[in-house]
Amino acid sequence: MRTRPHHQPLRTTQLEAHLVAQVEAADRSLRPIEALLTALGTADEIFRPREFLLRRIKVIAANPALAERDLIKLADIADALARALERRGVEPGKARFIIDVAIAISRRSTSRWLAEPDATLSELVAQAVAELCEAVAPPAPTVR
């Protein structure tokens, strides 16, 4: 695991490079969504401290120009991850779809990670995946 001083800013390119490297290094037996979600679950290895990220979220929310810039950065990361999935043999349209689903999972798990200091990001990613699975494929009804 790489470490970096807490005073060093996390640049989007660092996060992008980390996630792409994780996807590319993932076991080839993993399905594309599994490789991607595993990568997302490791993002806390390079994130800034929670306090900084919480302040950052408030500043971005209060400034539309920063919010737009943040969305552009997210789109750049999504594009890089889609290319990484394509290098794993995933068709481009399917790669984009997988990325879109993973971003929703990432948003839910990251917001929880910021609010729940005792939970790991990978645990919260797994929890969000379970919630998604339950929402789109609920358990079969009980027959009486």
Structure description:
By secondary structure, the chain is mainly α. Helices cover 69% and strands 0% of the residues. The protein has six helices and no strands. The chain is globular and about 55 Å long. It starts with 11 loop residues before the first helix and ends in an 8-residue tail after the last helix. The N terminus is likely disordered.
List keywords for this structure.
144 residues; mainly alpha; globular
Residue-averaged pLDDT: 87
- Helix-strand topology string: HHHHHH
Q: In terms of per-residue confidence, which ranges show pLDDT below 50 for 5 or more consecutive residues?
A: 1-9
User: Helix- and strand-based class?
Assistant: mainly alpha
First-to-last CA distance: 52 Å
Shape: globular
- Number of H/I helices: 6
| Secondary structure: number of strands | 0
